[in-house]
Amino acid sequence: MLITHLDQLGPEIRKARKALGLSQTDLSLATGLSIKFLSQLETGKADNPSFANILDIIRALGGQVMLDWSDIPTETDPGQSNGDRA
């Protein structure tokens, strides 16, 4: 499962779950998360799921998590020069 944007998260979870032949009940039992939450997540209606919940789901589906922070802009202190950080 490769997710490059969070709006892909729910559909990719559903796709992976179904590919493994798991129901939402199965995933709920494996993660301890409610069926209602999983349903809302899969349909994009879950408000701001925690990273811990996402990790639990991905682990239950046999996936891996890799983070790429390279495209996230960094803020520097205006008082610093030459890219030096405190």
Describe the biggest sheet?
A: none
Provide a count of the helices. Answer: 4
Number-wise, the strands total 0
Low-confidence stretches: none
Query: What fraction of residues sit in β-strands?
Result: under 5%
- Helicity level: 40-55%
For the termini, the CA-CA separation is: 38 Å
Order of helices and strands: HHHH
- The rough form would be described as elongated
User: Which structural category do the helix and sheet elements fall into?
Assistant: mainly alpha
**Oligomer status:** single chain
In short:
This protein is mainly alpha-helical and 86 residues long. The chain is built from 4 helices and no strands. The mean pLDDT is 83.
What does this structure look like?
- With 86 residues, the chain is mostly helical.
- 43% of the residues lie in helices and 0% in strands.
- It is built from 4 helices and no strands.
- The longest helix is centred in the N-terminal third of the chain and has 11 residues, at 9-19.
- The chain is elongated, with a radius of gyration of 17 Å.
- The relative contact order is 0.14.
Keywords:
4 helices, 0% strand
Lay out the secondary structure.
Layout: H1 9-19, H2 24-31, H3 35-42, H4 51-60
